Amino acid sequence: MALGPRNPRPIASRSLHRRSSVRRQACKEEAVGDICVVIVDGQHLVRAGFSLILQAQPDIRVLGEGGAAETAISFVKLLQPDVLLLAKSLEGADVFETVACIRELEVKQPRILLLVGSREGDLTETALNAGADGVLGKYATPEQIVAQVRRAAVLPR
């Protein structure tokens, strides 16, 4: 990833932030009733795969993607998605603390699904106790991913 001349933040992050804002506006104006999603995972390939699967659906809009806990919190404040897909393992962050921070925000609360790998075991109870709304395996089929996001979006707030 290229770095700006005087800015240590990756150029891709800066442009992603601008694109995310535009995506939110488009979601509000064009697609009433659509499910708006943010994906936060440290692995670019995982984010891209989930994004491609979800954006192929006519009723789901991916508003933004990021790779850090701070990004998740910022995107929830700024974009107010219906569903947040948040990786269980984010470098340098405790995902359960991140969930707690998001739950304390005074904004529309997203449904939070923790993305887990096959080696992390069953974290459903731990995730629910921490304030998440469910767990979604990174190894899930495209049909399962879409179904879980749709199910999460209609959970009562």
From TrEMBL:
Name of the protein: DNA-binding response regulator
Record organism: Gulosibacter macacae
A molecular-function term among this protein's GO annotations: DNA binding
Keywords noted in UniProt: DNA-binding
Tree of life domain: Bacteria
PROSITE patterns the UniProt entry points to: RESPONSE_REGULATORY (PS50110)
Database matches in SUPFAM superfamilies: CheY-like
Domain Response regulatory: 36-153
InterPro entries tied to this protein: CheY-like_superfamily, EvgA-like, NreC/VraR/RcsB-like_REC, Sig_transdc_resp-reg_receiver
Classification of source organism: Bacteria, Bacillati, Actinomycetota, Actinomycetes, Micrococcales
Pfam families, alphabetized: Response_reg
BP GO terms, sorted: phosphorelay signal transduction system
